[in-house]
Amino acid sequence: MPWPMVHFAISDLMFDGNPSPDLLLGSIAPDAVHVRGQISREEKGETHFVQNGMLPEKVWIVRQFNAYSSQRPEPAWQDFVLGYFTHIYTDVRWTDTLYAEFERECTEAAGGGVLRSIFTREVSQVEFELQRSMDARNLLQRLSTAKGFALEYLVTREEVVAYSRQKSEWLNDPGQEPRIQPIYFTAQKVNQFIKETAEELKEIFLA
Q1: Structural domain that includes position 123
Q2: Of 17, 49, 182, 190, which is least packed with CB atoms within 10 Å of its CB?
């Protein structure tokens, strides 16, 4: 799955450089489950609406977005829910495109046993490259002002806010950058993915 800067970059493109704080927070909220510590694959799957090992389809994502967004009228809630479901859709697209390609090519070249370590190093590098290519400081500042919400049975507000702080601290720590040249998740591939996914999401949710 893509890491926060990919989700932030997509949110930024969707709103022409002006994403709201709660949209940004919502765009990483499904992963807030990680603040619980060692979690199972099933626990993470719950916050991403995984059924039988599969992420949901587009029609289902839109239906659930409409159901959740209708619960409260305030704009911050609407933005948070939009961010949450753009995250789910982005994960679906990432899994079907860049990650599927990576899994196939990396397994052929290096064997399946090293997939996780290579993935972690490359997407860590992507996070820092994206920060340098856009106004990440402004995005993180906006993120810090988000109100935050709970999505019942999925994540609590406290988890979402704590996860946001953890990720901001990580992104602000230069020591976390691997300083490698990605082979599978190149800047060209990731930027194209961000552009295409943002356009798809605008058509789905904002048209």
Answers
A1: 4-206
A2: 17
Rounded distance between C-alpha atoms, residue 131 and residue 160, angstroms: 21
Distance of alpha carbon 70 from alpha carbon 57, whole angstroms = 20
Residue that has been written with the tokens 């920060």 in this structure? 131
Q: Are 166 and 3 in contact (CB under 8 A)?
A: no
> Six-digit token pair at 160?
């979402």
29 and 117 Cβ atoms separated by less than 8 Å? no
Which of 179, 97, 172 minimizes the C-alpha distance to 131?
A: 172
Read off the pTM.
Answer: 0.96
What's the total number of domains in the chain? Answer: 1
Query: What does the DSSP 8-state code read for residue 56?
Result: P
**CA atoms of 126 and 27, how far apart (whole Å):** 17
> Tens digit of pLDDT for each residue in 155-164?
999 999 999 9
CA distances, 63 to each of 68, 108, 136, 204 (Å) = 9, 38, 32, 11
- Residue 88 CA to chain centroid, in angstroms? 8
Nearest in space to 150 (alpha carbons), one of 159, 142, 138: 159
Does the pLDDT value for residue 187 go beyond 80?
Answer: yes
CB 61 within 8 A of CB 115: no
